[in-house]
Amino acid sequence: MANSKRTLFLKRRMRVRNKLRAVNSGRMRLSVHRSNKNISVQLIDDVNGVTLASASTLEKALGVVGQNNIEAAKKVGAAIAERAKAAGVETAYFDRGGFLFHGKVKAVADAAREAGLKV
């Protein structure tokens, strides 16, 4: 039986997450989710199971509501870096989920790096 696109995506996501767990040394995880309409990013403490900070294109404060392009991704990346610094986090692992590291996902990571977060 052929695997569906969703099944392959979930396998890819778990493969990435398990590799991050294997090398985790107390660092936070910067998790990205991209849908057809929005981009959201969370800074997660896996040890305590708590989300420390988040940013999304659904937030009116970022001025990119409903946009799903690279410019919106850059703003979300910069916002999560600022919020991470406010939460006292300097470094994090980048969890791309099942998404390929290019386009909007890469723009989020690059913007977070430019804003001072070591990803």
From TrEMBL:
Record keyword Cytoplasm present: no
Annotated Pfam families: Ribosomal_L18p
Name this protein carries in UniProt: Large ribosomal subunit protein uL18
GO biological process, alphabetically ordered: translation
GO MF annotations, alphabetized: 5S rRNA binding; structural constituent of ribosome
Subunit structure of this chain's protein: Part of the 50S ribosomal subunit; part of the 5S rRNA/L5/L18/L25 subcomplex. Contacts the 5S and 23S rRNAs.
Similarity-based family: Belongs to the universal ribosomal protein uL18 family.
The protein's role, per its UniProt record: This is one of the proteins that bind and probably mediate the attachment of the 5S RNA into the large ribosomal subunit, where it forms part of the central protuberance.
Signal peptide: none
Organism: Loktanella salsilacus
Keyword line: Ribonucleoprotein, Ribosomal protein, RNA-binding, rRNA-binding
GO cellular component: cytosolic large ribosomal subunit
